[in-house]
Design a protein that fits this description.
Distance between the termini: 27 Å
CATH topology: Serine Threonine Protein Phosphatase 5, Tetratricopeptide repeat
Shape: globular
Number of domains: 1
CATH architecture: Alpha Horseshoe
């Protein structure tokens, strides 16, 4: 495996929240396309857990979420201003009253990860796992623990914890979420430089996702798009540029079927990513500027592209944007520490 400095070369966009914090589309976890809703890779700042671990994929969307606790609302407002120490104080105050609060423990751990205090963060995630009242809540806390290791670029430990979440999804026969979790683990590993492990987990995600009973054609097309997207990025990282282009073309063919129009935003990201690793920085910049400009991974990759082109001022502008994310997911796990190092 490559050094941690090398592992942080790429940065990427899902909030995590067993803590009841803002949650985004589960597809954002691995930067892959979403199925049901339009998704960006972490276009918002916040801290939270994948809603898929709180709401089964088949759950009616009209079901309302319970009101947020007051301490969560207060801390989220502080996070939006990036007042991390103040937000952490809110969570710790809640934990003085309710030391077994899964929400407060997860939230405190997330903030500590954002502050770079990873070992301390894991004490809170461990408490959340221990205190979880249901297998679903336990899986959510385990997923947060996996992301904590992702912030350090540790593919092996991330996979160890994602495996536990994957096993939970196996136990409830949720094939779509098995694919989601496998792809999330893969996303951490590809950006950590462990390409063989990334390939294995992307392949697993593709295979498990397609096992969904009575799977519809549009979801089949989604998994094919994701798989080609992943193979293109892995080939690009390996320097196999012809193979990468073949997979880019295959991803485009899956997208052109028109069954997943909300996934179009992920294609220029792919083209730009492949061009960047080919050393074609002009094409990379042109394509990345068509991708989601609120995604911290895209911001970070644009910054790296400007840096390669010798434009330090523009590079710093985009590194500052990427460094401001307070999401707790694979994209943010690379974007925040990598970009903060660049602007320090």
């Amino acid at each position: 495996m490559k050094s941690k400095q090398t592992m942080r070369f790429a940065c990427v966009g899902i909030l995590i929240s067993a803590a009841g914090l803002a949650a985004q589309n589960p597809a954002q976890a691995h930067g892959g396309p979403s199925y049901a809703r339009s998704a960006s890779e972490g276009g918002q700042n916040g801290a939270g857990i994948n809603p898929a671990l709180q709401q089964p994929q088949q759950q009616p969307q009209q079901q309302q979420q319970p009101p947020q606790p007051e301490f969560i609302i207060k801390a989220r407002a502080l996070l939006r201003e990036e007042k991390l120490e103040e937000a952490l104080a809110v969570y710790r105050q809640e934990l003085e009253k309710s030391p077994d609060s899964v929400a407060a423990n997860n939230a405190a751990g997330i903030v500590l990860d954002l502050m770079g205090q990873y070992a301390e963060a894991r004490k809170y995630f461990a408490k959340a796992i221990e205190a979880a009242a249901t297998p679903q809540a336990k899986a959510a806390a385990q997923r947060a623990m996996a992301m904590s290791y992702a912030f350090e670029g540790d593919c092996k430990k991330t996979v160890e914890w994602e495996q536990k979440v994957f096993d939970y999804q196996v136990s409830v026969n949720d094939f779509f979420q098995q694919g989601e979790i496998a792809n999330e683990a893969a996303r951490v590993c590809i950006e950590a430089g462990d390409l063989d492990t990334a390939y294995k987990w992307y392949e697993t995600g593709h295979e498990r996702g397609l096992r969904e009973p009575n799977i519809k054609p549009d979801r089949v097309d989604l998994w094919e798009f994701r798989w080609e997207h992943a193979q293109a990025r892995i080939a690009a990282r390996r320097g196999k540029h012809e193979d990468a282009q073949k997979h880019v073309a295959a991803a485009k063919a899956a997208l052109d079927k028109g069954t997943n129009p909300t996934q179009a935003v992920f294609f220029p990201y792919l083209v730009g990513y492949v061009a960047f690793y080919r050393g074609d920085y002009k094409t990379a910049l042109d394509e990345l500027q068509k991708a989601n400009q609120n995604d911290p991974f895209i911001q970070c990759l644009i910054a790296q592209t400007y840096e390669k082109m010798g434009d330090k001022e523009k590079a710093l502008e985009f590194y500052r944007k990427a460094a401001s994310t307070t999401a707790h997911n694979p994209p943010a796990a690379y974007a925040r520490p990598f970009a903060k190092k660049k602007i320090s």
